[in-house]
Amino acid sequence: MVTAHVHARSSEFDAVDGPNVRVMRHEDGARTLFTRSPDNRTLTKKKFTSNGVLNMVTIYRMDRNGNPVSCRIHDGANTLLFKVSYGYRKSDGQLVEERMFDARTKRIDPATGQETPVQRVCYVYDAQGNRSAPMVFNLLPGKTFEEVFGTKSSALETNPFNETSSGKSVGRPSGR
């Protein structure tokens, strides 16, 4: 992957005072900028390196409950790399699977005629409703998503805009 040298404009990080922007600072100096649409249906995550280089943009489409239903992952030069769909269990709404498709090369399963994901991430839940670690199924040889992006999954661990009545964020987004 080629990382484009696109530097964050200081105005992007200065805009954090609004209700639709959050910044997460990572231990290594990198920052992630989250912005959401006023209707809460789109969440954009921009990940910058410690020296301000934009290296990944993820745009999530959310359902009315704030759960991601799909996302598109771009590199720092705005090249679309992956399309992701999320599947939820109907009985309780828990996330059970992510399917990641290569946006640059459509792969068709000759047996079914359907597009084949390059990666599947599956979750199981215990009796208390706690989610397991992700089970990652890579369907292509080469580097894994984790090797390229440093995380196993594109799922949001915590929505950075979920707040308590005091205005403080609930939970903490993972370092994705």
Primary descriptors:
disordered C terminus; mainly beta; 2 helices; single chain; disordered N terminus
Q: Biggest sheet, strands in spatial order? A: 1-2-3-4-5-6-7-8-9
Please tell me what the overall shape is.
globular
Q: Tell me the Rg in angstroms.
A: 17 Å
The residue-averaged pLDDT reads: 82
Oligomer: single chain
Order of helices and strands: HEEEEEEEEEH
Structure commentary:
- By secondary structure, the protein is mainly β.
- Helices cover 6% and strands 34% of the residues.
- The protein has helices at residues 10-14, 145-149; strands spanning 21-25, 31-36, 42-48, 54-62, 68-75, 80-88, 95-102, 119-122, 135-138.
- It has a nine-stranded antiparallel β-sheet with strand order 1-2-3-4-5-6-7-8-9, with no helix packed on it.
- Strand 6 and strand 7 (95-102) form a beta hairpin.
- The longest helix has 5 residues, at 10-14.
- The protein is globular.
List the helices and strands and how they pair.
Blueprint lengths: L9 H5 L6 E5 L5 E6 L5 E7 L5 E9 L5 E8 L4 E9 L6 E8 L16 E4 L12 E4 L6 H5 L27
Can you give me a brief rundown of this structure?
Helices cover 6% and strands 34% of the residues.
